[in-house]
Amino acid sequence: MERIELHFPAGEALPAQALAGVVGSGDLEVLYQPSADKSLQVTVTSSVDGGRQRWQHLFERVGAAHALPAGRLEINDFGATPGVARLRIEQVFEEAEHV
């Protein structure tokens, strides 16, 4: 079990909190809470050790495609692939934007 904390510069916060995904075999859940501090604080709790660099790169790719929103992300990972992780992150941002 590993706990990873990452921080990224961010734009405006999204208007609502949101949840995407379910922790289970090969999946993860992502919880977003808006914040006004102009950064995105990410906490990943993962069943897979040694994933800090993978998560760092994943958020760099997401941030290159879209501005990251200010707030906090709590990610509970149970061995999701990078593709599933990115999908859930983008889903939670979309949900928080359109609530």
From TrEMBL:
Record's GO cellular component terms: cytoplasm
Key words, A-Z: Cytoplasm, Phosphoprotein
Post-translational events: Covalently binds the prosthetic group of malonate decarboxylase.
InterPro entries linked to this entry: Mal_deCO2ase/Cit_lyase_ACP, Malonate_deCO2ase_dsu
Cleaved signal peptide residues: none
Domain of life assignment: Bacteria
Entries under Pfam families matching the protein: ACP (PF06857)
GO MF annotation list: acyl carrier activity
Predominant localisation class: cytoplasm
Positions carrying O-(phosphoribosyl dephospho-coenzyme A)serine: 25
Location(s) in or outside the cell: Cytoplasm
NCBIfam families, per database record: malonate_delta, PRK01220.1
Function: Subunit of malonate decarboxylase, it is an acyl carrier protein to which acetyl and malonyl thioester residues are bound via a 2'-(5''-phosphoribosyl)-3'-dephospho-CoA prosthetic group and turn over during the catalytic mechanism.
Family affiliation: Belongs to the MdcC family.
Name the UniProt record assigns to this protein: Malonate decarboxylase acyl carrier protein
Organism: Sodalis ligni
